Each structure stands twice: as structure tokens, then as C-alpha cells.
Structures
1.
Amino acid sequence: MEKIKLILPLLIYLGITLYIAYYNSPRRKKSKNFTNEYFIGNRSMGGFVLAMTVIATYTGASSFLGGPGVAYKLGLGWVLLASIQIPTAFLTLGILGKKLAIISRKIDGITINDFLRARYQNKWVVIMSSIAILLFFMAYMVVQVIGGARLFEVLTGLDYTVGLIIFGFSIIFYTVFGGFKTVAITDAIQGVIMLISSIILFYVLKEAGGGMRNIMKTIYEIDPNLLTPSSGGAITKPFIMSFWVLVGIGLLGLPQTTIRCMGFKDSRSLHRAMVIGTFVVGFLMIMMHLIGVMGIAIIPNEQLGDKVIPILAIRNLSPILLGVFIGGPLAAIMSTVDSLLIQTSSTIVKDIYMNYVAIDIDQKKLSRISLFTTLIMGILVFALAFHPPEFIVWLNLFALGGLEAVFMWPILLGLYWKKANSTGALLSMGISLLVYVSMTLLKINIFGMHQIVPTIVIGGITFIIGSYLDKSSPKEHLELFFG
Amino acid sequence: MNKINKQLRKEAIITVILYLIYFIWWYSFAYGLGDADPKNYKYILGLPEWFFYSCILGFLMITTLLWFSIKLFFKEIDLKKYEKNIGRK
């Protein structure tokens, strides 16, 4: 009986999601241009959906479990660090949004590679970017799924495999049949669930701790350093400043965010999304990480940081509320995985298959191939999550920084610098990735900064040098991007 | 066409300025007020003063400022006219 109460909110929520997938299915609507509909939803996102899908895709397991876990160990300093992410949504949308919206329409592009291919006119740029997307996205997805299934196990007491199957079935089902539009709309719903979930836990814990002032007092008695911005020296300035790159300006080229700049309806939607997105991400980040800090006063002496949120939820929420709460972190994970899955599929179908294998292909066959590719990749992710190979877990360590190293400069400079050319892009992509991976592996820290900082600096310099070594693109070509 | 490009550049610059304002706000309150002995901390709404100003107020400040800036400086652009191939294939 207890278990049913737990699972019930989850099932209701999954049911709604699957219905939306069915309702938005491109096949059902018999659309004229299948890839446009399936991979970018015919550029129809409004402001709210755009804001929520950007945030929900970006917010994964780490914002709901890992991050608050560290806040539990280090205190308010880590919430300060998490707040660095607040302006990132408007930075990305404000700088890339309109430009990409215009250019993607001009070139009829629906993937990041469509843009890179049109701008740099170089096969190797596209191949490198496709490989980066496929490898890092796979690793990222598998690790998110593992996190979700483990959490499901801890919270419901049901087996890891059961979680994996319920999870896998629903994500694969709605992504395969629904395509990008369904992914975006479900992301919006999942974003709302994340908000509700964090508000519930925050409120209940605040009451349990006897109010915020009381909680802070208890934490002061445990260790006053937990209330300082530097956590008594544990969070150094070079370290925290690095996060202005890692989860700040570095996100400017992140493919899963950038693709969304190609999919909104009109400029009003973009303006609204900037405000809504900033508000929601700030609300979520502050609340979830504060929950981790409040945990210090409520359950001191927990050893494993990752378990803090699940334990807080189990001990303080009634079964039905717990069921509603579980939706939050699971929604965070699902909304990340579905977006990466559809983008993985578009990379294979649109960027590789349609460009280099079968150039002319009829719509019917194309729709079959697209659905099939999404299905295969989805099954592969969940198969890998059963027995995760070490390679995948290892690869995931580089996923975020690696994507930034590869994509930030080619996208940013491609949009705003006329002299940017393929020599610069290739040089920058290759060297940044090399620098980032080797510095991380060798654990080289310059002045205590995260490896992403020197990576981005070197990437920028090599891009400029490379671009000056070769000539710019022909004038008529640049008209398309700067005219 | 060039008018639109100028406008886009202006919007990008405003975005960067807003980003810098948030950074300065975040940094000054956190380290200006917080780099002290926690014994002497003052509290607002139960939270240490530095944290309240830097994170909570900073968050509300930037959201409001963003809203105003978009109202004042951002322009609507007709994206439809760039679309080609509508209904083709």
C-alpha cells in the first residue's frame, strides 16, 4: 500500500507525458517536411516552453543530487558557487538567440552542424563536431540514467532494474514517437515538476528545523566556517572564479542549449524566455542548494553527500508527498536525457547520413530511418546503464568541459567575427580538446584554477591565429551571415 | 539589413553588460560582507547578511533589471521573412 502511494504520482505524471507524445507525433499529423518537424518541431516554441526546455535540459542529476550533496559538506559557500549559473540562461539566449534564429532560417538549418557546415564550409569541422556530440552525449546520458535508476531504488525500495525499465520505456517511447516538439513540451512540464518538488522539500525542512534563523544557528554551532563564502578556505577564489567559465560563459556553445536558439517561434518568445528562464533557474538553484545546507542542521554526520537529498526526503515527507517529490529529480534527469537523445539522432540522420551517405532520399523512408535511429540509440543508452563500462563513466568526466572546448569558439566567433574561418575553427577545436583532456588527466592546475579556464583561453588564441593564417570566406558567402 | 545587424550587436552588448553587473554585485556583497569573522555576521530573514544580499537579492535584482532592459532596448524582429523552403518537398 505504501509503495502504491509512492508510485502513484509518478505513474500519473508518466501517463500525461506519454499522452502528449502521442498527441504531438509528427507521423500522426502527416507533416510535409519530416526532418524539420521531427528534429526542431517546425520552430514553434513559445517563450515559456523555450525557457523551460533550456533550463530542464541543462539541469540534470547534479543540480538535484550532486550539487546539494556538496553544499551539505561545504555550506553556504557552495550555494554562492551555484548562483553563478543564474545569469547563464539569459547570456546564452541574449547573445546567440536572434542571430541563430535568423541564420538557421536562411540556411534552412535544423542542427548545430548545419550552421557550422554553412559557416565554415569544411567537412572536417562537421565530422569533428559530430564525433564530439556522439561520444560526450552518450557518456552524459548513460551516467544520468544510472543516477536516476539508483535514486529510484533508494527512494522507492524497488529494484534498480525496475527503475531502469520504467524509465527507459517512457523516455524512449515519447522521444522516438514525439520528436523535438514533444521533448520541449515534456521538458516544460518536467521543469514545473522540478519547481514543485523543490518547494515542497524546502518548506518542510524549514519547518522541521524550526525556521531559517534557527537552522543557521545550529550550523554555526557545528562549524562557523560553513556560513562563510570561502567555507573556511575550502573554496578558494581561483577555484570559484573558474566556475564563471565552466558554468558561465563556457556554456555559450553547448550544443544542447544552442540548438534551442534555432527552434523558437518569434522574437517575443525569446525575450520572454530570457526573463522566465533566469527567474526559474535562480529559484531552483538557490532552493536546491540551500536544502543541502539546511541538511547540515537536520541530519548531521551523513558521510555520503549524494545521499543527503534522498535521506532528507524519506525522513521528512509523507508517502504521497514523497511520491510527488521523487518526480523532481527524475524529471530533471528525464528532461536532460530526452533532449540529448533526439539531438544524437539528428546528428546521425541529418549530419552524417543525409550529408555523406544518402543525399537524395524520400520523406517516407527518412521518417522511418529517423524513428529507428532514435530507438536504437535509446536502447543502447539503457543497455549500457545495466552494466556501465568504465570507459563511459570515465568519458563523462570530460563531457561538459569537452563540449565547451569544442563548441564555444567556433559558434561564438562564427556568429560575430567575419574573419573566422575553417582553419581557425579546426585548430581551436583540436587543440582545446587536447589541452583540456591532458590537463585533466595529468591534474595540472594553474594558480588553482579549473582546467577549463586555460583551455578556453588557449582555444581563443589558436582560433584567432588560425584564422589569420588563412584567408576569410568569400564576400558573397559572408553576406548570408552578416548581411 | 544592416540596421538589423546593428540592433543585434547592441542587444548582445547589453546582455554582456547585464552579465557584468550581476558578477560585480555577486562578488562585492559575497566577499565585501562575507570575508569576516562569522561571529560578527548579521542576519536577514534568518540568512547571513552577505548571502542574502549577494545571492537572494542579487537574483531578484538581475531578473528585474533584465526585464526592464528588454522592455527598453530589445526590438522585435520579424523572423518569418527569413524563412525559405516553406512547404517544399
Note: Chain A has a mean pLDDT of 90.
2.
Amino acid sequence: MAESLNGAPVRSRCIGEMAVIYATDYLNKLSGERIERECRKQLEQGCRALVINFRDTELVNSIGVSILLGVIDAAETVGAQLVFSDVNRQTIALFEMLGLTRHVALAQDEQEALSTLTEFTTPQSAVVGH
Amino acid sequence: MPRRILKNRGERRILGRVEPEDFIGRAEELERIDSLLSPGAKARGLLVLTPPAAGVSELLRQSYDEIFRRHEGVVPVYFAFSTDDKTTLATARRFFHTFLQQLAAWHHNDPSQLETVLPMADLADAVAPADHEWVEQLIEAVERARDDERALLRLCLSAPQKVSARGTRVLVMLDGLHLTERLKGEASLGAEFAQALMRSDLPFVLAGLRRRLLDIVRFEGDDLSRVQSLRLERLPDRDARTLVERLAKQAGLVLHDETRDLIVQQLGGKPFYMTSLLQSAREKEVALTTFLNCQQLYVDELMGGRLFRHFDSMMESITTASAQRRALIRVLYESKTSDGSRAQVETWRKRLNVEPDQLQQIIRELHINELASLNANFIEVGNGSHAWSDYLATRYRMEVAAEPRALVVAETLLETLKRAPHTMARHYRRAAALGLRELLVYFNGQRVPASLLHYDRFSRAYKGLDAESLAVGLDAETDLVRLPQVVHAASCAAFYPPIQAFCDEERCAVAPGFDAGTYTDANEVVWIAAEIESKLEAGRGMTEVWCDRLMNVARACGFSRVRLWLVAPEGFSAEASELLAERDAYGSSRHQLELLTARLSADLAATASEEEGTDEFELVIPMGEDTELIAATTVDQIARRLNFQPEAINQIKTALVEACINASEHSLSPDRKIYQRFRLESDKLVVTVSSRGVLPPNFSEQNGGRTRAQSNGHEVQATRTNGSSERRGWGLTLIKSLMDEVEFERVDDGTRLRMIKYLRRT
């Protein structure tokens, strides 16, 4: 697990106005800040929906969670949607314990997250929003 | 500082009170004395200015022993003035006698000759045959001149020169020169000695208390370029710790790191005080394993041991009459405990009811011994050492307030025990301080990237970047700040004592200087820097309070152009950064400061320690660098042995990670290590996480307390707020939610968290 903590940047990919950011195996201050940085970059570049994929994440600490709250705030400020995907059972329990799940949607996997968000980012739904 | 290894290691000591290999620290000082003997030496004389009880006598004795043992053509002579010396005549004769006896012992290369005091008349026979004639003549001349002070002084002081004139070099070391002022006689013996040595070609060392030595030694019209001064400072903590360990080992005493550090800090690293306490422990066969044991010994020492006798004889030498001494104890204690602790000389005279001359004498002695400070017409009774303060308090309570001894003993013990964690916490804070004062001195007009002084810019540009990218970014910055050329940097408290109410001395500094190349009024600027305590990004309110505090300092000191610089561990919130910009002040996080320090070349070090173990799993990890992951992996493997379910294992891992993070973030640990113990029992896993250092404020009420955690608690509930200020500090609550039992065990130093997870078989 620790092998990935070598300073490697956070992986991400863009699909239209959506971006998927991949969290690493341990969500702590450093990796959290990398995710936060990447999310803010994507939002500045015009992304309207973000997926944070936790498929590799085995362990989360409270500092990492506090940074995720910052990401939720940042997305909300610019009116972007945010979904967490592929969160394992233990991490979901932790997120619930810390009240995170009240502020962010969870998806089973990345595909489900993207499907949900596609509805949100289409012009049609935007019109509905008005 | 490495301990000096002597050539003839293993040979017994001569004048030294400890074996050479047990003389800890002071290697540099020994070298300085030794360097006087080298052929190309620039300096011939050395003035050793020392604070009280810093160990200068042993330094000179060790130097004597080494030079004696080497026997390379230099006769060492060590003479210590004493409080028992009463007259100039008698003291000069004692010097003459000591000199001849040490000369004889050196000629025969027989240190045992120093063990018995020979009559003066026998000394001519004891020296080398070649010296017999002149020594005999000199002894006769000294006997004849017994009532002529001037003549006798001249004769006595000529002795070393006569040896030198016959081709044998002599190094004269005089200790306690400040004591010569008490001698009755026409001449000032200290000044006479100094002048005689200066006008000779002999190498010499003159040592005395730093507040008096330079007033006694006046080299009028002499070549001062041949005399250097050496300021003996407090024994560094590292050496003081080694000394305590060595003393404990010799005495066969059990000593723990925590108690060792308490002894060092409480006794100010003073060798005499520490030796006294350890001797007492040896005599009473007390293991130094708990703070309670240490403080009991300490209080015993204060009430009737060596420390008591040390301070008592000092007080007796200041004023001999017991009624007057009691009045002095009263005035000292009441001045010390009153607000400001500063009084006019006239007030003291009235309270002590003494004649002006006598008052001057008392105040001078207090000043020289650093028990009080005389500045112009004011006397200030400073904090001094713990030992002196405690001695004073106990004497006051028993002699002035007439309280029962048992009550004084009991309450002093309680107070010192309560104080112990604060003493250690202050030490840890001091050790963990970022060294602003030292850093300011390094500024020296250098240019640094502006983002290092503006947290908001730094955060925007570099947060989340790896070290390499960050360094590249900083190097590429074009907006640079020219730091001032600092001419003097001191603690803020030195300029404005009331600031001590808000921060430790080491955490706030004032540095006047110039922010451009020319020394003009327009370029004059004073930097006032402070480290502020904030677990999170410092908010606007806190930042404003600190800016106001520092501006108060500026106003009180009359500084016209000021630059404020605040350092908060996690930086500043956006609102606080705005405020800093409005005030034209700088704000940096600890990370920025470290980067700045690296650029201005400075470094820090850490110490180490170890812990014993029994039949449990034990793990010690260094703090930082995500080492909590190693702990998590370890506990994962251990928990599997008891067949915990994956979900429970993850909870244990998360709780352990949080405990490690708490230890790293809040303890100011001196060894930067986290000690973990994992004990498997039939139905549970017990995990203990401990670290040395400061007890975090939110832990302090719970230390020793116990909580039954709710295994599936939902009470943590992180809240989203406008800022990040409430997004941290969930660690402890989270631990309680994840584990079944959480308990803070009472420890002398730092924290020990015990967590239990019960096995639930499915």
C-alpha cells in the first residue's frame, strides 16, 4: 500500500464537462491535498461534474476527510456536482460516521457515477434546472 | 559536543573531582585553555567569565590534571580563592605555598605529593635540586616580609616568573577571582595578580563570576591583544543528560529518560546541582524512575541537603547576622512574588534597616551571584533558577512565616510535582521552537521568494505539490523580498517583558536593522516576529490579536518603522491573510518557515531514546513521513491472528492511524517517536500508543480517565463550515467511535493512549 506514496501525481481523466479523479490507496493530508488541487484545477477549467474514484483506497484518515469536505465546498461554490464512487464498505462506514455522506452522493462504481452526472450536465437537464 | 579522550586515559585524577572520562562536555573550553601553550598561540591569557555553579572549577582542575600528566615541560598551577580567605597577606602566602608544592610535585612527576600539605620550611627540599637555592631564598624573604603587604605580594607573585626565567614554562590558573574583593588589606589582590601575570611572559587563566571579573581585572596600559575571553555557558542539554546518566550509572541507580530530562531541566543543567541530587539518590538508594521520587529527593536536598548548604552558605556570606539574613530572605521573596519584582534601592534600605554601605555590599553580592540584578537605582529580583526560587520560598515560609516544617515540605513537594509537567512542556516548546531569533540574524539582506512570506500566495501556488516541484517553483519566482540586514536580534521579552504573559521567550523576537544597503533613518526597520499557536489555519480574530500585541511592543519600545511577521503552524485563513495584507504584515506557515530556513542555511536535530518490552508485540516508529501506515500494516497482521473481521480490522487500523497522527501533531515530542504495544488476549486486542512530550490541551482533562466508547457511534459528525477551522480535531472522537474502550493512562511525561477492541465472533 505504501509503495504508491512516492509523490506520484493524482490520476484523472476528462469526459466532456466531467472529470474523474482517482484517489490513491491512503487518503491522508498529502494525497488529499493532491486530490483537492486536481479538483480545483478541473473546476477552473470548466468542469461541471466531478467523480472521485476510491477504488484503490484502503485507508482514510481524518485529515483526508477534512480535505474532502473542502472539495465538496469548492464544488458547491461553483455549482458543480460531485460523486464519490467505488468506496469500500469500511470507508463508507467512516464517511457516514463523520457525516460526509450527508453532503455527497455515493455511486457503486465509476460507470454509475458518470451515468448520474451525464443527466446533470446535459443542456436539457440544465434547462430543467432553470 | 564529543567528549574529550585524554591521552593517559585510565590514570587516576589529580586535582579533578571526577575521572577525565567522566568529565562531560567542555571539550572546546579545555582546548581553549590548552591552546595557550601552543608555540604559535596568539593569546597568552584567558579570562573565563562564568555564571554561578557552571562548573568552572572542575574545568580548570581537569585542565591542570591533563597538563600535569602530559608532563611536556609546562608546570600547571591551579589556585582557587576561597570564601575562607580573610586577608590579602594570608591569601598571598597560601598562593605561594600552593605554587611551591605543585611545582615540587610536578618536578617529581608525583601527584601524590599534593595529597599532604607540607610546611613552608620543607618546600625548599621538596623542589628539584636546581631550584633549591632560589626557593629557599624566596621562602626566607617571604617570611621576613610577613608584615609588609606590598613586599610580600611582590615576592609571592614573582615565584612563577622565577621558574620561567630558568627555562621551565608555567601556566597559572586562578579560580574564583571575584572572591578577592572580600579580602582585608591595602592592595587589591585580584588586580595585583592580573597585572603581574599580564606583565610577565607567562600563560595564564583568570576565572571568576561573569558579573564581576572584568571589574577586578583591569589591564591598564597593557597589550590587550594577548588576552582573550571565554564565556562559559550553561552545559548543553545533551551533555547535561549524559552527565546525569553517567552519575546514575556510577551510583548504580535506575534512571528513566523522563526523570533524567526532568532533573536536567529543573536544575538548569548545572553540574553541581545535578551531582548533589544524584549523590543524595545514591545515599538514600532511591531509584530515579518516577517524577515523585525525583521531587522527593529534590525537596529533601532543598530542606537540608547539599543544595540547602550551598544556598545557605551563599546567604551567610552575603550577610552574617541571622536577623538581617531573615530580613533579606523576606525582602527577596516578597520582591520576587510581587508584580514587577522591581524596587528602588532606597526601598530595600528601609526594609532591611541597614546602613547605605552595608546595603551596597549586600546588593553587590546578590548581583554578582545573579540572585538579583542592579540596574541604575533599581533592584530586580528575577526568576533565577528553580532551585534558588524553591530554596527562597522554603526559607521564607519557615523562617519568616514560621510555618511548620512538615507543612512546608509537603506543600513544596506537591508544588514541584505539579510544576514538573510544565517544566518539561516548556522545555519541549523551547526545543520545538522554530528559532525565529536565530533565523532573523541570518537574514543579512538576502532576497527570497515573496511567497515564503505570504501564506495565501504560497497556498495557491504550491499546496499539494511534491518537494521537487515546489523547489522548482520557488526558484522560478521573480517576485522577491529583500530581507533586512539585522543588526541585533533578541527575544521580544527582552525588549518588552509583559509579552511573556502571551508567549514563550523563544517564540517571539525583535530584530532591528536596515532594509536597504545604506544606514539611514529612512532605511531603519524593526522586524517583530512571533510564532502563534494554532492547530488549524489561524483565523482573522487570532491574527488580529497578535498583530495588535506586536504593535503594542513596537509602541512601548518607540519603534517607528515596523514589519510584523507571524508564523502559524498551518498558515492563515483567507480572511486572516487579508488582514495581514491590510496591516502590511507577513504571514508564513511552518512549512514556509522551514523552506526559508533551508534557504538561509539552518538546521535542527533530534534526540533518541528507547523503551523496554515484555512478551507483547512492540513497534517504535518515527513520527512523520506517513509512518502510521507501517503501524497500520503491523496491527492488521496482528489482528488477523485473532480472527478479527475485516471491518473490525479496518476500524482498528483507522483508530491507530489517528492515534499516531495525534501523537505526531500535538506532542512536541523530544524524540519524535511513537511507541506502540499490541497485546493479544483471548477476546480482545489491546493497543497502547504512547509518545513523550506535551499533553495536548484536549487530552489533559482526560489523562488518567477512561471512556467506554460506543462501538458504532455516529456522534462525530463532521460539519461543513465557511472555513476549514472546524474540519480538524476529530481524531480523538473518531478513535472513541471506532474502538470499544479508550483510556488515557497517567504517565509522567507525554501521553499514553490505551485502546481495546473486543472480538465479536460471527
Note: The two ends of chain B are 60 Å apart (CA to CA).
